[in-house]
Design brief:
By secondary structure, the protein is an alpha/beta fold. The protein has helices at residues 28-32, 56-62, 97-104, 109-114, 119-128, 131-147, 163-179, 200-220, 240-252, 269-276, 289-298, 306-312, 319-324, 344-354, 359-365, 368-373, 401-404, 409-412, and strands at residues 3-18, 35-44, 50-55, 66-73, 78-81, 83-85, 150-156, 183-191, 228-231, 256-261, 280-283, 301-304, 329-331, 391-394, 413-418, 421-425. The chain has 18 helices and 16 strands. The longest helix is centred in the middle third of the chain and has 21 residues, at 200-220. Pfam families: Amidohydro_1.
Length: 435
Amino acid sequence: MAGRHRLLLENAQQLVLVCGRGEEYLRREGAASLAVLQEASLVVGLDGCIKAVGRADVIRHQFSGATFERVIDCSGKCVLPGLVDAHTHPVWAGDRVHEFAMKLAGASYMEIHQAGGGIHFTVEHTRKATEEELFHTFKHRLERMRRAGSTLVECKSGYGLNLETELKMLRVIERAKQSMDIGISSTYCGAHSVPKGKTATEATDDIINNHLPKLKELKLSGEIHVNNIDVFCEKGVFDLDSTRRILQAGKDIGLQINFHGDELHPMKSAELGAELGARAISHLEEVSDEGIMAMARAKCAAVLLPTTAYMLRLKQPQARKMLEEGVIVALGSDFNPNAYCFSMPMVMHLACVNMKMSMNEALAAATINAAYALGKSDTHGSIETGKQGDLVIINSSRWEHLIYQFGGHEALIDYVIVKGKVIYQNERCGTMSSY
């Protein structure tokens, strides 16, 4: 196939497709045996999409007359889909390292919250920060996520709790969408906490009557494109009725429902999400058996966050039960001032050790299923012809090293690629040949 193309990755020891038949997601049976090619190559076109995947000799023959902007010899290495982080809170000012010490001394999440810490501490600092300051720190965090292999990241607002600051955060996310080589799914999370001086009902009314109409207006004008709506459905925050009202209002203006549920107390959030047609629900440490079955029937993804349970010493989400009941299980880092983790490889490792997932299940959860949770599994989450050329190359002959080497991704990842363009290259890698 003559012509010019953007990228050729050739002679990979393992090419981990994840999916091989255009699946939207993988349930337990599908995730048990991921699609993997041996001694394989792939081509990404000038449009950033994958043009061909197959045995190295077949691709070599098929593209014998072609030219490429870049060629990378992947002999002895593994190529995987770019990782997808399905839950983050990366736009904020003021870290909470002091609260980590409080947690270690035994303070609970809600005790810190009620003492004016937690979300309210971050809200205070984020309100004071300029848009430029927030963008600078957000950009730096996204760069660290990319170096750890993430090529598509869900990014929430939620540290404003008033219209002005929520819009400031969403503008920062929109700016990164337009200017950085990384995929972003943006989430309005104005119902992250009840603002000081308001009741939950007053905050709910403000969001429905003021915040959401403004988001609709900005979307129509092309200024801000928000993908998802989120609510922290929790005892002492937004109850089931308030959550229902906000999520339905968001759905009515075209936002995907993707919210926090059943984290600290059983709230029947999973049942509500299934009823409303939610694309995904996060946390679910306290989900009911009925909620699990409802999510499986509704094809509502469970975004599990092993860092949160680990750092807050909560009970682990019931990943095995969810998988056995047919729930679509995804993973996220929950990066935020309370769970400071950029690395999806570490998240997958924790999911395997603490939530008893297999490495295959964890990789599916951090690729195709995480993409599904964001409504993007038609373009992301697997290495298939027609999908976006988002890829990770690791310096190992077995892909499982990405999970096995806990905290070792910085030495293991050689290249991170978005739309066929190398956006991160490990300093030990030599220059790439072109022809």
